[in-house]
Design brief:
mainly beta, OB fold (Dihydrolipoamide Acetyltransferase, E2P), Immunoglobulin-like, 5-stranded antiparallel β-sheet, 5-stranded mixed β-sheet
């Protein structure tokens, strides 16, 4: 007989249930209780993971958009402000006057250009010291102090400017600050690094730790600047904000100079006086050096000076027998060495080590100029003279009387020409190897030597960019030198 279970003791027999049916119902209910609840029709864990990923995507999108907005304005390395305007008071460097970011145009009223290329420039606010990267182009308007139009290429790193720029960081107009000053390509600057004072032409200026001292796209220590340097300074009032070295200096150190009796030194045609320890400051670049004394022959050479470095020239290395050997394609010719005439048809000249100017002249040929480099060994020169073009006159009507008159005239001309004095002119340029013209006629590349009649002559030199400098020179002696400095 099967077992029965009564729900309650007082129930009758008809209300009883089978135990196995009840147990089956219990098992069904347990299975239903173990099923996880659904979210949006999905498993709860999967739904939570998808929600988290969506939140992260939204956050990253917002960050990227804000980054794009921030980078559209000029970069400020020091603050989150788009621009800090300058105070009128020069001594207030903590001005809190901020341009409204909603304005279409922002302004830096007084800034120094730190870096500049064809597309961008970095400008440092002279008062707040904030820095801004601003986009420029060849069409960016640049207005000078006299309201004259300038080019964007007329300004460079180290210049003092005012600039208006858009929210997107493009320069709309560049001008120059009111009450600002600029002295370009000057020499004779004296800097006192202890008091931070600059003396120029008896005018006293001051600078501070934020003043930009600039040389060839790099900063330069003020103590390395010499009065011989070519510089440009700019600022407002008596404060210098920008100091740009256009051309720096180095030194030529002449060793063993005490071995020369009554030494005389000329650099670029000018005699050097009061030499201290035979250390001579010179602008960087090529220079011609001439050294003479009672116990040595004259020595000439070209030397290249590197900025802020010493270049040594040892007298003992200068003295030594070398030769200039001449192979000339003419039967008769004249030889001039550094303006000094040597015997006709000379083929070999003994010289000290150095660089010499050689001029060969021959009747019916063009003058030939060449530099002989004897700094290390003999100079063997093969000289091919070029014949001059002649114009032949064929006139059968010329009679003997005319010939006689011509002979008389020639004799008269010869007598006259014998009274004409000539001098030798040597032309140097800095830098060397520039085109040289004498009285409008091209003579070759510098340094050159020419034989000229006594009197005034026009000398001009042209560099590779087409810039020309000229001066008049009076030839009144056997030897004269002139230097044209670019």
């Amino acid at each position: 007989m099967k077992n029965y279970n009564f729900d309650k003791q007082d129930n009758d027999f008809g209300a009883t249930r089978r135990i196995d049916a009840v147990q089956k119902q219990v098992r069904v209910l347990k299975k239903r209780s173990n099923i996880e609840p659904k979210v949006f029709g999905m498993n709860k864990a999967v739904a939570i993971l998808i929600i988290i990923l969506c939140v992260l995507f939204i956050m990253l999108s917002c960050f990227a958009i804000s980054k794009m907005i921030n980078t559209s304005a000029p970069k400020n390395e020091y603050t989150d402000q788009t621009h800090i305007d300058n105070p009128n008071n020069l001594t207030d460097t903590n001005n809190n006057s901020i341009q409204n970011n909603n304005n279409k145009t922002n302004t830096i009223s007084c800034g120094i250009i730190e870096i500049k290329n064809t597309a961008n420039m970095r400008v440092k606010d002279c008062y707040s010291q904030n820095k801004f990267d601003i986009s420029i182009s060849s069409s960016t308007p640049v207005i000078g102090k006299d309201n004259n139009k300038m080019s964007i290429f007329d300004i460079s790193a180290g210049d003092l400017i005012s600039v208006k720029y858009s929210e997107s960081g493009y320069a709309e107009e560049i001008t120059f600050p009111e009450n600002s000053f600029s002295y370009k390509d000057i020499t004779g600057i004296d800097i006192d690094i202890d008091s931070k004072k600059i003396n120029y032409n008896n005018q006293l200026f001051e600078y501070n730790d934020n003043t930009l001292f600039h040389y060839k796209s790099s900063n330069i220590y003020p103590g390395d600047i010499d009065k011989y340097d070519i510089v440009t300074i700019c600022g407002v009032g008596s404060t210098v904000f920008g100091f740009r070295v256009e051309k720096s200096h180095g030194y030529i150190v002449i060793k063993n100079a005490d071995t020369v009796e009554n030494i005389s030194i000329e650099i670029d045609g000018e005699k050097i006086e009061d030499i201290e320890d035979f250390i001579i400051p010179l602008l960087e670049g090529e220079h011609s050096i001439s050294i003479n004394g009672d116990n040595i022959e004259q020595y000439e050479t070209q030397i290249n000076i590197t900025a802020l470095k010493n270049t040594e020239l040892d007298i003992l290395n200068m003295i030594g027998d070398t030769k200039i050997i001449l192979n000339v394609n003419a039967d008769t010719y004249q030889v001039f060495l550094n303006g000094i005439e040597y015997p006709e048809n000379t083929t070999e000249i003994a010289v000290n080590k150095g660089i010499y100017q050689v001029l060969i002249k021959s009747s019916g040929y063009k003058d030939f100029y060449v530099m002989a480099n004897c700094t290390k060994q003999d100079a063997n020169l093969k000289i091919e003279l070029e014949k001059e073009r002649t114009h032949t006159v064929n006139n059968n009507n010329i009679n003997n009387n005319t010939n006689k008159n011509t002979d008389n005239n020639n004799n008269s001309d010869n007598n006259t020409s014998s009274n004409i004095n000539y001098g030798s002119l040597t032309v140097y340029t800095n830098p060397s190897w520039l085109k040289v013209y004498i009285d409008g006629e091209y003579k070759g590349v510098s340094p050159i030597m020419a034989r000229l009649e006594y009197g005034e002559h026009n000398i001009s030199a042209e560099d590779s960019s087409g810039n020309v400098k000229e001066q008049n020179v009076l030839i009144d002696g056997p030897d004269k030198r002139v230097n044209i400095d670019f």
